[in-house]
Specification:
The longest helix is centred in the N-terminal third of the chain and has 21 residues. Helix 3 crosses helix 10 and helix 6 runs antiparallel to helix 7. The chain contains ten helices and 16 strands. It has 387 residues and is of the alpha/beta class. Strand 1 and strand 2 form a beta hairpin.
Length: 387
C-alpha cells in the first residue's frame, strides 16, 4: 500500500516534470500524454476530448453519485526567472499560476483512488460516498476556455456529476491553511474592443479631419465613471488597458482602438455594463461625426461557490486540519473558467496555501512551496467521504 510519503514524492516528481515542460492553452500535448499514460498505468480508463488535450477518467466504487475534481494544465507566456533546477525548458513559457501543482495533485489523488478501488476490502469501500470523475482540463488561461469546450463535448454527462470541486494555489496563505468563500467568489471577465473610426489627414487642417482620438478619449473618461452608477448592485470593475492610434505629431490617424475589461459579481451588473459600453461609445462618436465598431467578448462567468457544498467542504477540512486552518477569505476580481462548471452544477473552488514567500501569481519568479501538495491530495481524497 502506498504511504503518504510515497504519494507526496510521486506528486513532486509529476509536478517537476510538468513544470519543466510548460505548454500554452490548447497546446498541452506533452502534458496531456503524460497524464493519460499515468492514468493508464494506474489501471484506469481515461478518455480524451476532441483533440483539445482534455482528459477525464471515472473511478467507480458502486451505485453512488459522482463528484468531479478539476485540474487545469496550461501555462503562461512568461519567461521564467526562478532559477529552479527544473525550470521551464520551453522558451518564454512558464507555469506561473500553479497549474503544474494542480495537475500533480490530481494525479496523486488518481493514484490513491485506483489503489482503493483495486485493493480495499468491502468495509472500506462502503465508506465511500461518491464515485469520482477526474478532469484534467486544458486552456484555463484563455477565452474561449477549456472548461466550456469540455462541457460542450460532454464532460458533465453520462452521468452528470452531482458536484464539482477544484483547488487553486494561493501565495497569500501559508502552507497548511486553506481559504474558503461562500457565494460569488471570483468575478466574470469580459473583454472590451472598440474601434473608433474617423477621417485622418494632416494635423494642420483639423477642419478637414475627424480625429478619432478625441471621441476615444471621451469614451475612456465616460466608461471610467460607469462603475459608479446607482443601477449596479455590487462591486464592479471596468478598466481600459490599451489604446492604439497610429498617428504622428503632424498626422491625424483614421482609427483609434480601445481595449479593456469588465469584471462583475452579479449577472445583471454584467449585462448592464456591456450594454452601457455600446450606448456610451455610440453616442460620443456620433457627436463627433465618427463611427464605432463595438465588440464585447463575453468570457468567463462568475464563479459561484455553492453555499451548502462549501459549508460541507469547510467542515470536512476542519475535522482533520483544525478550524484555525480553514480561513474565510475575501472574494476577488480575478476570474477562472471553473465558473462554467458552477453554472451547471453545485461547485466549490477553494484556495490552497502555498507559502507567503512564493511570490505573485503570473509573475516570472512565482515559486510555490511543494509541501502544499500533501494537503491538496488529502483534501480532495477526503472529499469522497463528504457527508
Amino acid at each position: 500500500m502506498i504511504t503518504d510519503n510515497d504519494l507526496y514524492a510521486f506528486a513532486v516528481d509529476c509536478r517537476r516534470w510538468i513544470h519543466a515542460r510548460p505548454e500554452l492553452s490548447f497546446q498541452e500535448k506533452s502534458t496531456s500524454d503524460f497524464v493519460y499514460n499515468k492514468l493508464k498505468k494506474f489501471g484506469l480508463t481515461p478518455i480524451t476530448y476532441n483533440n483539445n488535450y482534455g482528459i477525464s477518467c471515472d473511478v467507480v466504487f458502486g451505485n453512488l453519485p459522482t463528484i468531479l475534481f478539476r485540474a487545469d494544465m496550461d501555462a503562461l507566456p512568461i519567461t521564467e526567472q526562478t532559477g529552479l533546477p527544473f525550470s521551464s525548458t520551453t522558451p518564454d513559457v512558464m507555469h506561473a499560476c500553479g497549474h503544474d501543482i494542480h495537475t500533480a495533485i490530481l494525479l496523486a489523488v488518481a493514484k490513491r483512488l485506483s489503489e482503493l478501488k483495486n485493493n480495499a476490502d468491502k468495509t472500506t469501500l462502503d465508506k465511500r460516498k461518491y464515485n469520482v470523475r477526474l478532469v484534467f482540463q486544458p486552456a484555463e488561461e484563455t477565452s474561449p476556455s477549456g472548461a466550456s469546450s469540455m462541457i460542450d463535448d460532454g464532460v458533465l454527462s453520462s452521468p452528470c456529476p452531482q458536484y464539482a470541486v477544484a483547488i487553486h494555489v494561493c501565495p497569500e496563505l501559508p502552507v497548511g491553511k486553506i481559504g474558503v468563500y461562500k457565494g460569488a467568489f471570483m468575478a466574470s471577465a469580459d473583454e472590451i474592443h472598440l474601434k473608433v473610426i474617423g477621417k485622418g489627414g494632416h494635423a494642420s487642417t483639423p477642419q478637414n479631419n475627424i480625429n478619432p482620438i478625441i471621441p476615444a478619449a471621451e469614451i475612456i473618461t465616460a466608461l471610467s465613471q460607469l462603475t459608479k452608477s446607482p443601477s449596479l448592485k455590487d462591486d464592479c470593475v471596468l478598466a481600459i488597458g490599451k489604446i492604439v492610434a497610429n498617428g504622428a505629431t503632424n498626422v491625424i490617424p483614421d482609427i483609434a482602438e480601445i481595449s479593456g475589461t469588465i469584471r462583475t459579481f452579479d449577472e445583471d451588473d454584467r449585462q448592464f455594463l456591456i450594454e452601457m459600453v455600446d450606448i456610451v461609445a455610440t453616442k460620443i462618436t456620433a457627436i463627433h461625426g465618427a463611427k464605432v465598431e463595438n465588440i464585447v467578448l463575453q468570457g468567463y462567468p462568475i464563479v459561484v461557490n455553492d453555499e451548502n457544498l462549501t459549508s460541507r467542504m469547510s467542515s470536512m477540512a476542519a475535522d482533520f486540519l483544525g478550524k484555525e486552518n480553514v480561513l474565510n477569505v475575501h472574494r476577488r476580481m480575478g476570474a477562472d473558467d471553473f465558473g462554467f462548471y458552477a453554472q451547471k452544477i453545485p461547485s466549490c473552488i477553494f484556495r490552497l496555501g502555498c507559502g507567503l514567500n512564493s511570490g505573485k501569481l503570473h509573475s516570472s519568479t512565482f515559486t510555490p512551496d511543494e509541501d502544499c501538495m500533501d494537503l491538496g491530495v488529502k483534501l480532495l481524497y477526503n472529499t469522497i467521504l463528504l457527508q
